[in-house]
Design goal:
Elements (H helix, E strand, L loop, with lengths): L2 H4 L4 H8 L4 E3 L4 E3 L3 H22 L5 H5 L37 E7 L2 H5 L5 E6 H4 L4 E7 L2 H13 L3 E2 L5 E8 L2 E5 L3 E2 L3 E9 L7 E8 L3 E7 L5 H10 L5 H27 L8 E7 L4 H17 L19 E2 H8 L2
Antiparallel strand pairs: 1-2, 3-4, 3-10, 5-7, 5-12, 6-14, 7-8, 7-9, 10-11, 12-13
Amino acid sequence: MALPTALPFDVSAFLTQATEGATIHPSEGWVQGLNQANINTLLRAYQEQVVSFVTAQKAQATVDDVLGTRQIIPAGRPVLAAGLPYTLIVRGATWAALPASLRHHLTLALFVGAVDQALEEPSWAQTLSLPALRARRLGVTYAPATEADRQLMAQVKQQGATTLPAYLLRVRPLLQLDGDTIATGPTDRLGQRQVWQITVQAPLGHNTGTETFLGSAGDEFVVGINGNGLTPAVLEARFARGPSDTAAANLYTLSLCYWILQDVADQMAARGRWGGGATLALGGALYGAAPGAMALRRAAHRLLSSATDGRPPGAGRRGRVDARPGESLPAAEWVAGVVV
């Protein structure tokens, strides 16, 4: 039904009646006090004309009858087409390999103080391709900065000392992928407070998220990455390759368990509300003052706490042990963590 032709709407008359008695300011583009009574009268009259016209044309008319429809014409082909039946207008850029700008990346940055963090000038930063990480363990461990530091730590361990002169020792962070060192950071005093940032960046800079947490030089921490959802099969595959018998392995196992349970909960919620869902790239950090049961208990406590409020593990929480200049730390806290 050609409604615009059969029942043309007089826009000029409508505007005249609608603005009767109104205040209009053309230069500033606003109007005040439209005549609502005239508007209602005109719209009601036009509505009655439309109803009368449609009823006269066809009783019990549907929306399709009034506005018209379009149908897809099926084409039965004997073989699957190799391409779309559309004319190519323009072709975009092509690459032999996906460029870095179209990949997900993870950046781990170390700041030596609040000033450097405010200026966004990290003393050390490393960026890795998220697809290259896959389900591999990414973490930071600390090693003695010099041979003298290593010998002093070994001496303290051999003597069975109950304290460790942290102010005399310097360590350096080692960025490791499944235990293999891929980068070495700057040295710092053992126990010195540090600020770490984990940034997960989507292609073209979209949906970039950054988590900041405090640490100490000498901590052991692992970055738990959930690229696009994790399943129990990932955890089973890691156990099949070897036991989880180190601080880094235990912390990473915790992170995998967290993300697996989080994915299950998200999928259950998505099916109940929207029918399904997809996991975007996520990241968090689990860390402890030393390897072994103590670090595992601390990480587990933070993991359970984060699960109650939805925050990534390690974000804004830790049981850090810091050393001030001239202060000694309990040897049990640190010797096992830094002596090779």
